[in-house]
Amino acid sequence: MAKQDISPYKPHEAIILDRIQEAPNLFTLQLKFTDPKIQDAYEFEPGQFNMLYLYGVGEIAISIVSDPVDSNIIDHTIRVVGRVTRGMDNLKTGDRIGLRGPYGRGWPMIESKQKDVIVVTGGLGCAPVVSVINYIEQRREEFGRLNIVQGVKHTADFIWKDRYDRWHEMPNTKVLLAADVGEAMWPWHVGPVTTLFDQLEFDPDNVSVMMCGPEGMMRVVCDHMLDNRVPASQLFLSMERNMQCAVGHCGHCQYGSKFICKDGPVFSYEKVRNLFETKGF
Ligand SMILES: Cc1cc2nc3c(=O)[nH]c(=O)nc-3n(C[C@H](O)[C@H](O)[C@H](O)COP(=O)(O)OP(=O)(O)OC[C@H]3O[C@@H](n4cnc5c(N)ncnc54)[C@H](O)[C@@H]3O)c2cc1C
Ligand code: FES
After folding, report:
1. CA dihedral in degrees (84, 85, 90, 91; nearest 10)?
2. Is residue 265 within 6 Å of ligand 1 at its C-beta?
3. Ligand in closest contact with the CA of 9
4. Which member of 73, 81, 107, 219 lies 3.0 to 4.6 Å from 47 by CB, making a disulfide possible if both were Cys?
């Protein structure tokens, strides 16, 4: 928690200010603590996550996607996959849930200032890097060239076309999209996302590469970047495991000697290289 007087174990009541349906199984909840003192004390960094508690059903880890400067609204984009997310899908504006957080280490946004940035996402899970793009969008002149690369399996998995259109319009920004399996009207690339990499614009000595998605995809991205002289210390991965306590006590998210909830979810590749290269860890 940001301030000493807020317990990291105790969910606090938050109200849903708005609910936005992003795609058939994907929605955003805009939340605010009902206690103004807790809301005022709440601070987070891009890449951190909260534990959201649906009363009587369960608690899940969800990344924060809003901008840290806007301390009045905490946004979470949630994909319906199972018991808790199905229950949350039924929530409406004005409903209340429990919220504790923020947890974990986020993206190295301060260290990446004045550098080129490459954001790579694959599969369905792009929420953790949306916070990076939103952050840079608000401070565009503080960063170098921005490359946004998204790979999906099927064209139907691609969501947020309007956001990608908006990002495409940002100065000094390149948006590259690929689907493994393309359909007739898919205007972008068909093939593995890595086949787009020769279009990236970056200085290997002055770049941060931030990625999330399937671990197999992230392994391929890391190999490609290392082959292109990007140091391992400049590659950052957001990892996901099932979580319970979120504070490094229960061991559910253990990753070798590390805990994803406490030492991650964002890791420098340099720090987890041995684990990451061992499949099944
Ligand atoms: C740090 C972190 C950040 C996350 N951010 C987001 C986010 O921004 N938006 C979002 O939609 N989801 C996010 N997730 C994933 C989210 O926590 C799970 O989808 C959620 O816990 C599923 O709960 P459920 O009860 O609906 O599904 P369950 O009924 O628990 O499970 C449904 C299926 O999903 C699998 N599963 C559940 N949780 C995970 C997990 N953490 N990793 C891999 N497989 C899992 C189960 O094995 C099962 O196959 C994040 C997870 C972590 C660890
Ligand atoms: S979730 Fe309990 S140790 Fe990470």
Report:
1. 90
2. yes
3. 2
4. 107
* Joined tokens for residue 161: 């076309």
For residue 233, is pLDDT > 80? yes
Q: Is 278 in the pocket of ligand 1 (CB under 6 A)?
A: no
Q: Which atom of ligand 2 is nearest to the CA of 251?
A: 3
Q: Is 98 buried (19+), middle (13-18) or exposed (0-12) by CB count in 10 A?
A: middle
Which residue CA neighbors atom 17 of ligand 1 most closely?
61
Q: How far apart are the C-alpha atoms of 42 and 48, rounded to whole Å?
A: 12
Residue whose C-alpha is closest to residue 32's, from 12, 5, 49: 12
Residue 4: pLDDT above 70? no
d(Cα 221, Cα 121) in Å, to the nearest integer? Answer: 10
CA 92 to CA 183: how far, in whole Å?
A: 35
Residue 159: its pLDDT value, please? 72
Tell whether ligand 2 has an atom less than 6 A from the beta carbon of residue 251. yes
Task: Flag whether pLDDT at 158 surpasses 70.
Answer: yes
Q: What is the pLDDT of residues 105-131, one digit of tens each?
A: 999 999 999 999 999 988 766 778 888
The ligand minimizing its distance to the Cα of 105 is: 1
Q: Is the pLDDT of residue 5 over 60?
A: no
